[in-house]
């Protein structure tokens, strides 16, 4: 593994990421291929970076944490991601679950991510250009849903499309005051939620751009 990438993986371990499968998936992925030429030297810093259209590729620690929380050490079958962005989180998921459905509201980002993931050999990903606040109904229900933009409140469609026994991981709250929330849907259908840590995401916006 290239030295900067292996230093990043060590840092994620130090920060408490313990799921070896998640760490291995990130160790394999060339994050420098998900950012512009000018930012390639910073691709393995533990930072969010701009990807154009006022959006960012998430911080590696947050990607690792959200993935670890979503999977809980299991192999999920069908995962919905809201906010494809660069496709980095999508690629991490595609290595760890059977099928990923990813939705993005900015068309050029969706198209670039699709080409990028095809280029690195991800074959189990379906890309949607749509408003993810509505979930992605045709493929519902999902046993995992991961949202990579900050919601003012949890969109009801995402709760409705979460299967019993499934888990939703979502940043919620006002800009400047978001928390990472984990919502489990019990076999009975009831929801149980816990807030994990403060986070800072670009906003989840309604409608297609
Ligand atoms: N996982 C991405 C994060 C990108 S930033 C990565 O690591 O690269 C969040 C993304 O969510 C942005 O691309 C933004 O356009 C998208 N987004 C915001 N609101 C959305 C919505 N309602 N539906 C789909 N995508 C949305």
UniProtKB/TrEMBL annotation:
GO biological process, one term: protein repair
Top class in the EC scheme: transferase
PROSITE patterns for this protein: PCMT
Active site: 58
Positions of transmembrane segments: none
Keyword Cytoplasm: yes
A GO MF label: protein-L-isoaspartate (D-aspartate) O-methyltransferase activity
UniProt keyword annotations, A-Z: Cytoplasm, Methyltransferase, S-adenosyl-L-methionine, Transferase
Location in or out of the cell: Cytoplasm
Catalytic reaction annotation: [protein]-L-isoaspartate + S-adenosyl-L-methionine = [protein]-L-isoaspartate alpha-methyl ester + S-adenosyl-L-homocysteine
Any one annotated GO CC term: cytoplasm
EC id: 2.1.1.77
Function: Catalyzes the methyl esterification of L-isoaspartyl residues in peptides and proteins that result from spontaneous decomposition of normal L-aspartyl and L-asparaginyl residues. It plays a role in the repair and/or degradation of damaged proteins.
Family: Belongs to the methyltransferase superfamily. L-isoaspartyl/D-aspartyl protein methyltransferase family.
Protein name, entry field: Protein-L-isoaspartate O-methyltransferase
């Amino acid at each position: 593994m290239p030295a900067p990438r292996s230093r990043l993986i060590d840092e994620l371990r130090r920060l408490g990421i313990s799921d070896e499968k998640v760490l291995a998936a990130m160790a394999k992925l060339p994050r420098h291929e998900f950012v512009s030429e000018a930012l390639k030297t910073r691709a393995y810093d533990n930072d969010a970076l701009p990807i154009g259209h006022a959006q960012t590729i998430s911080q590696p620690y947050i990607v690792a944490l959200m993935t670890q929380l979503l999977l809980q050490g299991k192999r999920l079958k069908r995962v919905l991601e809201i906010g494809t962005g660069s496709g980095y989180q999508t690629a991490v998921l595609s290595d760890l679950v059977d099928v990923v459905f990813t939705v993005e509201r900015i068309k050029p980002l969706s198209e670039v991510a699709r080409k990028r993931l095809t280029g690195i050999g991800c074959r189990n990903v379906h890309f949607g250009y749509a408003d993810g606040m509505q979930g992605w109904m045709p493929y519902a229900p999902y046993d995992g849903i991961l949202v990579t933009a900050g919601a003012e409140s949890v969109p009801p469609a995402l709760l409705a499309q979460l299967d019993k026994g499934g888990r939703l991981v979502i940043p919620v709250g006002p800009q400047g005051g978001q928390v990472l929330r984990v919502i489990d849907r019990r076999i009975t259908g009831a929801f149980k939620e816990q807030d994990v840590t403060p986070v800072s995401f670009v906003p989840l916006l309604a409608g297609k751009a």
